[in-house]
Design a protein that fits this description.
The protein has a 3-stranded mixed β-sheet, covered by helices on one side. A 3-stranded antiparallel β-sheet has the order 5-4-6, with no helix packed on it. Strand 9 and strand 10 form a beta hairpin. The radius of gyration is 19 Å and the shape is globular. It has 8 helices and 12 strands. The two termini are 21 Å apart. The chain has a domain of 51 residues: Alpha-Beta Plaits, CATH 3.30.70. With 262 residues, it is an alpha+beta fold.
């Protein structure tokens, strides 16, 4: 395994625009952590009959993940993901005593398991953890913006989907995604990605990956509901997003990330 490249550009403009630059960064940072201004679908509460807004959001607690990849297996089975491609995957971050960091993932074909370290290397590991990756279902979506035929779109509940009847497989959205979560499906020849199992959400079910997770690492819920575990976590705990500097405002957020992952 090769050391992970952690190249961070800390350059800051040195001219008189520095103040403007910092102000813009503050706006981006704040926007990345707020999704309350999203348009939301209203549904009737079964108990009270009152209209309730629905905006889905996803939470990954890296402190709970054990790297079993059952989420990946469930996703492949539920969504008929073609061999050699994944809608979601798990990365392993390993820190060694000499300061070296390695990042690897399981194979793209089953079994989805991680390789073992040689005994002498395992003894030098100071820390390790797993990070699940999937579509971030951003508020500011580059993938939707670049689609020339409007095949990529957002539902009223904030889920980013692909209309495969209109997709022409140009791969513009694949290249535009900052998180590398899209691919061209070799069977359908259209863009493909995680949909948060929208077909299950519409039936009141949880996503396949959330259902399969044995440790509660993955949670999906309604950010508009103050009693929803996702809403509570977003408002009461420290949650981070991947690549916040991109300003895409992901609705997939994480607990327990380090700066090496962010």
């Amino acid at each position: 395994m090769a050391p992970a490249a952690n190249n961070v550009n800390n350059d800051v403009p040195e001219d008189n625009s520095r103040r403007n630059f910092l102000a813009e960064m503050a706006i981006i940072g704040g926007a990345a952590m707020s999704i309350s201004i999203l348009p939301a679908m209203s549904v009737a509460n079964e108990e009270t009959g009152e209209e309730q807004k629905v905006t889905y959001a996803f939470l990954v607690d890296t402190t709970k993940c054990i790297g079993c990849a059952r989420c990946v297996e469930a996703c492949v089975a539920e969504n008929s993901v073609p061999e050699g491609y994944l809608r979601t995957w798990v990365e392993r971050y390993v820190y060694f005593e000499d300061g070296t960091i390695t990042v690897d993932s399981h194979p793209k074909t089953a079994p989805f398991s991680f390789g073992m370290f040689a005994g002498e290397h395992e003894a030098l590991v100071s820390n390790s953890f797993y990070v699940s990756k999937l579509c971030n279902h951003c508020v500011n979506t580059p993938c939707i913006q670049v689609c020339p035929v409007n095949a990529s779109y957002m539902t009223p509940e904030g889920v980013v989907l692909i209309d495969k009847k209109h997709c022409i497989g140009c791969s513009y959205c694949v290249q535009a995604c900052p998180f590398n979560t899209r691919f061209i499906n070799p069977v359908t020849q259209t863009a493909d990605k995680c949909t948060w199992c929208y077909h299950r959400l519409k039936k009141g079910l949880r996503t396949a990956c959330v259902t399969a997770c044995p440790t509660g690492t993955r949670i999906i819920g309604n950010i508009e509901d103050p009693e929803d575990p996702v809403h509570i976590a977003f408002t009461q705990k420290r949650v981070d997003v991947l690549k916040s500097y991109m300003g895409t405002r992901p609705k997939t957020r994480y607990i327990g990330l380090t700066t090496d992952v962010i």
